[in-house]
Amino acid sequence: MRKFLGLVGVVALLAACETAPQDGANANASGDSSSTAQTLAPAAGSAQDFVVNVGDRVFFGFDQYNVNADARATLEKQAVWLKKFPGVTVTVEGHADERGTREYNLALGERRANAAKEYLVSLGVDAMRIKTISYGKERPVALGHNEAAWAQNRRSVTVVSVGAGS
Amino acid sequence: MKLAVRFLFVAALLFTTQAFAELRVDITQGRVEPMPLAVVEFTGETEQAALIGRQIAQVVSADLERSGLFRPIDPKAFIQKELSMTTLPRFGDWRILNAQALVQGHAVPTGNGELSIQFRLWDVSAEVQMVGLAYNTVEDNWRRVAHIIADTIYQRITGETGYFDTRVVYVAESGPANRRVKRLAIMDQDGAKHRFLTDGSDLVLTPRFSPTLQEITYLSYYKNTPRVYLFNIDTGRQSILGDFPGMTFAPRFSFDGTKVVMSMARDGNSDIYTMDIASRQTRRITNHSSIDTSPSFSPDGTQIAFNSDRGGAQQIYVMDSNGKNVRRISFGKGRYATPVWSPRGDLIAFTKMTGGKFYIGVMRTDGSGERLLADGYLVESPTWAPNGRVLMFYRETLRGEKKTTKLYSVDLTGYNEREVITPLEGSDPAWSPLIP
Lengths: 166, 436
What we know:
The complex is a heterodimer. Chain A is of the alpha+beta class.
């Protein structure tokens, strides 16, 4: 966790809307000692901890579902975290960009979610802890209509569904 | 939903003789010049009946105009202002306007809020009646009678079955793209009698009519679990179709209404299944590591067209309905998707993606004779009018960074494209069969 201290400023904002277990938060509490306001890092094992300190999403090429090197690096961090917090279950969401037909994109999102899940399982995460769901092109995060936006939308997102501060 | 239209007397109105030179629009030969026709305000025995008569004439005229095959003449140009149902029209007055066909009608209250709606279709140059019919109906049902009259005229003049007495179910959309609210909605083919079927609390996609018109099959994300559902239009009841371990999607009824064909995803892979609605027996039709989706039965039920990337990219394939004899039929440039079999059985409508654009097109069932009918930033989800002459689809249009999503219809010539007006944005249209 130490090497992520540079992100604490962001963490404080995100954590503000989290009702995280305080004992977990204290373990990671850092913040700027010269500041009067005490900011808390996300509770270890929380959904916020996962998003900020691990990275919840990986990206795919156009009409692709293979897990590339960047995606593998993120999924490997996810696997380490998931093994550290065995009480956590996740849902991997698969998404597609808007440049495809609806039904095919639902199938493609399913493939992407499953590809991410399979890589996590290959790294030793229990498959029973991972659900998948495809949203096809229904839930973009980037709202533009250009390659930069589409690239952000061709993604799988690992969503912590049951947190456990163990 | 049960709309009683009783035929009081069929072709019982006088003046009937068979014309020697039939007034006819041949719609099988590509683009045709719209036929000039005059639709005169229907008269009424009472003030209320006359009001309904005027509205019926407007709906008949609008239906025929939208087909692109008829050009209703502006009533302001009419020379003969009043026509009686019991005397011949002054044909010379209509020939001056170049009207080739003339439609007149009359509404007579018959008690208990019911009307007898009479109409005649005249061949102006031959000076003969082509149709003389009367319909008995409850007053509230006048719109359906108007569509039935328009269908009768369309059929008499083109020789093809009409499609105006139909409905459309679609997905009404609102809100920003990342929090889009989608609701099932239903309306008459001309946009009238619009109503929402779901409240938007669950994401819903790809509704399709059963041939009986009483049910819709669609995809719902109810409880964040995407599955195929049935929606009963009469009762408003929604029920899940089957108990599948993975996402079911891309549902479509067989033409006889006994089965739904759909995709199920398992461990990331999508294959095609059928479910018999009465017995709930499921049958796996494809078993392939590729994406197999967007299945569509042929009208005779013997074959299924579907979308697969088994050759590397999305293409259209056809197989026997037991999954055997799979053959690829799309070989043009680009990717092909969403095959939908025409109710006539002769064509398959599709979405094509090439060169950064999307197209709606049709091809014969062996893949030959490809014709593109519409294009855009994104167009997809073609659906056939029951006579197989007109398609509806949705289009996403970009203006700067703003995207709009709307429904359109286009006929097989590709020349007569019309926006279908809906209260909100709309996608995933599905055209009903003719209302029985």
